[in-house]
Amino acid sequence: MIEFKEVGKRYSNGYEALQHINLTIGQGEFVAIIGLSGAGKSTLIRTINRMHDITQGKLTVDGTDVMSLHGKSLREFRRRIGMIFQSFNLITRTTVIKNVLTAFVPELPWWRATLGIFTKEEKMKALEALDQMGILDKAFVRADQLSGGQQQRVALARTLAQNPQIILADEPVASLDPVTAKQVMDDFQRINRDMNITVLINIHHVELALQYATRVIGIRAGEIVYDGPAAQVDQAVLDSIYQGSQEEPA
Which of 27, 60, 82, 207 has the greatest number of CB atoms lying within 10 Å of its CB? Predict the structure, then answer.
């Protein structure tokens, strides 16, 4: 369970990205976070794995105070949380399986990490993750030879190899065409449903958010203005989230 209590985030330049965030997210939920560019969507999900530190309030994951973690305990905590980015974050000049194997690097002795030495068990886990994403046949293809959708599936396979309890996704389909975006959202939905992994997606496309998520959180200027079932999001709710903006929800 993820719990925010009066969480705030103020950057060093004085900008308040988050204000008075109170949220509880249960295991196995599929949550979409929507709002204008700069509303605080990315900051919100990046506080969960300590990519950004909160400056006010308390944030806990399964009862653990995230801000109390340092060094090894923080690294171990992050192993439970997968992170998917818009830009895929792959090593494009190497093979797909080597990209997935990087999921194990934080746990390796320094000499194995430096030399790129992996056990048979680790390689089998990587292949299994690729099989789960339907791209086992691409295991020995260079990542830069794949389509955008296939590269995002490699990123998902790398995350699954960590055996995460939570997956955070920061605009994971923003760079994909509409057909491929739906295919990748299908993957997130299947992972959530079949593996009971909590999925939090920061997404600009409202239509996809409402189609795939069971719960929607709307953020405006760093504050939550809607938190409820996707099925109850109507035009009035969207107006409250995108109030006074020329930016149209996609």
Answer: 82
